[in-house]
Amino acid sequence: MGNIFSFELIRCDSIGSRCWDCVAGQAIYTYRLEERLSELKTALDELKEKRDDVMRKVNIAEQKSLKPLNEVQGWLSRTATMINEADQRIIDGNQEIKKLCMRGCCSMDYWSTLKFSKTVVQTLHEVKLLKRKGAFEVVATEVPVAPVVERPSDSTIGMESTLNKVWSILEENHVRIVGIYGVGGVGKTRLLTEINNKIGVSSNRYDLVIWESQNWYL
Fold first, then answer.
1. pLDDT (tens digit, 0 to 9) for every residue of the chain, 218 residues total?
2. Fewer beta carbons within 10 Å, N or C terminal of the chain?
3. Which residues are bridge partners to 67 per DSSP?
4. Burial class (CB in 10 A: 0-12, 13-18, 19+), 70
5. CA-atom Rg of the chain in angstroms
6. NB-ARC domain: from which residue to which, for each copy (predicted)?
């Protein structure tokens, strides 16, 4: 019994048509390179204007002791990076345009120009997207006031037992007032300073610590 072979004829005009569609689709990138670069420059200018507006709002907020939002700081950082990249694309684009011939339909270094043209299109998309994300209604918020301001403190060597005793009293719920007294120079202020710093690190019972003259309040 002989071997059976089968094959399918594919019309050359069909293959040619698909190849032409592919080439034409790729060629549109190089053909519109100058147009895309112009669009990129316009979009980049608008992004820079948006950045300047946001930075102006941030500066005004900081003068009022407000803290910029993390998303605003992140946007400004990403915008700075994108501006540098887009500026470089425009500079490189001037060299790529010089390679074009036949009114932009072809290039003396086709594949290099094609790759660059696609990069320009992607950069243009990212610049426009970043500009839209910069529409912040609020750029900063109030900084929470720290309940305790740490104060410089000398060593409390030799006062550990007194410090522990006062601290244990402060931890009792029913205690409202603690009096610390003694002759000058025995370390009362040093002891209170250490307690102040200890509250800031290890206690959530107090909303605010106030130092006033020789008096100290929780």
1. 455 544 444 443 443 343 333 344 455 555 677 888 899 999 999 999 999 999 999 999 999 989 999 999 999 999 999 999 999 999 888 777 666 544 444 445 556 667 788 888 999 999 999 999 999 999 999 877 666 666 776 666 667 787 788 778 777 767 777 777 777 777 777 877 887 777 766 666 666 666 665 555 55
2. N
3. 141
4. exposed
5. 35
6. 160-211
